[in-house]
Each structure stands twice: as structure tokens, then as C-alpha cells.
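pinning this so it doesn't scroll away 📌
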Amino acid sequence: MTSNVTGQGFIETKQHRRFREFCEACRRYQYIGLCYGPPGVGKTLSARNYANWDMVERYRPDAPGGTVTLEQVKGSTVVFYTPPVVVTSPGRLPNDIDRLRDKLRGFSLEEIRREERPHLESANREVEGLYEYHRRTGLNGFDVPPEEVARRQDEWRRIFERVSGRERAQPDPTALILIDEADRLKMTGLEQMRAIFDQGGIGMVLIGMPGLEKQFARYPQLYSRIGFVHEFKPLSREEVRQLLQERWWPALAPMPEGGIADEESIAAIIRVTGGNFRLLHRLLTQIGRVLEINKLEKVALPVVEAARESLVIGTE
């Protein structure tokens, strides 16, 4: 078993790699896939990471100095969507997904506009210059020969039509749609997801709690289109141990010098969290807090127990 600890943010675990392979299969074969697992095991984190959704959400084309660049999002082909708890309009779900698909297509359009902007701006200046004589003198007409007027106007029109043609030729890049919290979907929502899928050319993954596959079995028109099922399991004891040994730590939480080396503490963390990634994140955050408050430098069993007492641990 290997894991890839990517800084203090996302962790590429064995479960994530299996999820990624599952998504790739749904994308490649254009099937609907079901992914289910208990809360806190990392389903949403894995889905957002696979879709590069943190970058996609933060990108703003009108903020060139922003934290996310076009280079980081162009080529995105996966939509991540969480249905609202209450759908107040029958068209809400398909409209939301259309908007997100347009957002992905917008990256390609933005790249075209950036490439063509210097040419179009130059042509605009050339045409705008034709009217300088009128602004200066108030007289109608141009102070350049008619053939020059025609040349500038034709050049602007040619460039504009080229840009418009390139934009129209850009297809919807969406290859896969990830629907998180799919348990929220009622009959109408499921029918709408099926209609989107039936348009063709994409795969779809419905993500939810255990029992999702039984819930959808009651809708034969959708269930007959399901090609793959994936169970997202908690971290194994070995994975939790390796993460601790590789000194993964929640962002913003104070990290102890040298990480966690005490075997008794590691065993207690594994026992308390049971492989639940969300609970592991919370427990390590509390451990950092206990160390900071008590000005301690090493993690020992009493620190883990003190951190454990401040957590609410349940079935969620």
C-alpha cells in the first residue's frame, strides 16, 4: 500500500486511486456509476479533487491577477454538482448543470479570446481611427482614400468572423458529471439526471450513502443504465499509520515537532478514528490545539485522550 501526501491539503490514498479508476471507467464507457460509502470517508473530497473543482470554482476570467490562472483550469472536462436540499423550481437541477457545463466551455472560449484579443483590438483601433477626422472637424467623410476605408473595415470583419467561428466551433467539453449527495434526488430529479445522460456523450457518477444502490433499484429506467458500482471504504489501519508516519497534518493546525512518533498514541488514534478521514482530521486538529494550549512539544497518549474527549463521535 502506498499513499501520496500532497502537502497539507488533499491526500491521495488507496481509496482515492480506486475512486479515480472508477470515474475513468464511467467516463470512458459513458456509463452511469454509483459510488456509496459512510459519511466522512472522503467521497466528496475525492470527487472535488478528481474534477479539479476547487480551482474551477475559484477561477475568475475578469481577475487576471487572481489566485487561479487559466492554465490551471483549461482542459477541465468534469462537472461536480451537489443538488440543493429543497428544489423550488422544476428546472433548477438541469439549469444548474447546464450553467456548470457552460463554465467549463468558457475556459476554451477565454483562451480563444486571449489569443485573438491583440488582433481584434488592433483592427478596432484601425476602424476607430477612420472617424477621427469627423470628431476633429465635424465634417462627414474620411480623410483617407475609400480603398483604405474598405480595407480597414474588411480586416475588422474578417477577424471578428474568425473569432466568432472559433467560438462556435468549441464543443461542450464535459465528459463526466459527478453528482454528490445523490440521496437528495427525488423522482423528478432522477428523471432529469437520466434525461441529461441520455443526451449522450458523457458519463455520470451518483455519489451517496450506503443503500444508494437499493434506493435507485426502485427506478428501473435509471437503474438499467448503471454500469459500475463502487464502495468507498474507510482508511485501513495501515493507511492511517502511514499518513501519521509521513507527517500529514490538517492545514492551519499547529503541528508537533517531529510529527507523531509514539506508537501508543498512533494506536489510539487508529482505534478512535476507525479509518474515518473526517474524524481523523478533527482529532489531529484537536491534538494540535491541546499541544498549543499546554505548551507541549510531543504527542503522548494523555494528549490523544484529552483531544478525544473534546470530540463528538457518532454515526453522523
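📌 and the second one:
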Amino acid sequence: MEKINTVLKTMTFDFFGSGQHKILPSMHLAGKNSIFLDVRSNAEVETITLNLIHHMPVIHIPIDEIPERITEIPRDKVVGIFCSSDVRSTMVYFYLRILGFDNVRIIEGGYSELVHEFKPGKLLKHISKTDK
């Protein structure tokens, strides 16, 4: 309970106002030491999968499996969490912060903004950067 209180006390108006808890998909993709954490359900991922071969690893762990699979989430990388609506991402963000993960961010705009980054023009720019 003490850890929850400690994390909650850091979540001030300044913290949320500065956007420290979120990151734009484009900014996360530009990171060199980053991964994506997809917390959508298995059914959602089976329907629409993000395979970001040219960009960075995507770890899929449904929100209800996070406690049992916590060791699969690297602590030495910036973890960009996404789902379809930011609700589950926010819950996982808070949970990971309580567990001492400091380098976690919610992908701003969730799945839809992330997909927007992969329209042809933007995708070409991302691929061109990774091919250099």
C-alpha cells in the first residue's frame, strides 16, 4: 500500500500537465532504446496485428496476463504501452509504476494514433531511417 501512495503522490498537476506519462507515437518510434507493449486482448490482436519489423519490438501481453508475465517486460527499455482506447494502457501504466518501472509511457492516442504513423509517407520515412 505504501508504494501505491508513493506513486500517487508523484502524480501531481505538474506531472500530468507536462505530459510525462504519455508519449506521441512518432517520438516513441524515434527512440533507440524503446519497445511497444500491446495490452489488447488476444482476440483484438488476432484481428489486427502490429508487426513492426522495421521499427522496434512489440510485446503482446493482454492486460489480464500482466501480473503473471511481468518478467517479460524489460526494465532497461522505454516501454510504450498501447491499447485501443488508452483505458487499459493507463491501468497498466499505473501498475508498472507501482512495481518500480520508471521508463513507461502511454502511447498518446492509443492504437489509432499508432496506426496513423504507418500511412505510406510516414512509413517510408521510418523505414528510411532504420535502413541507414
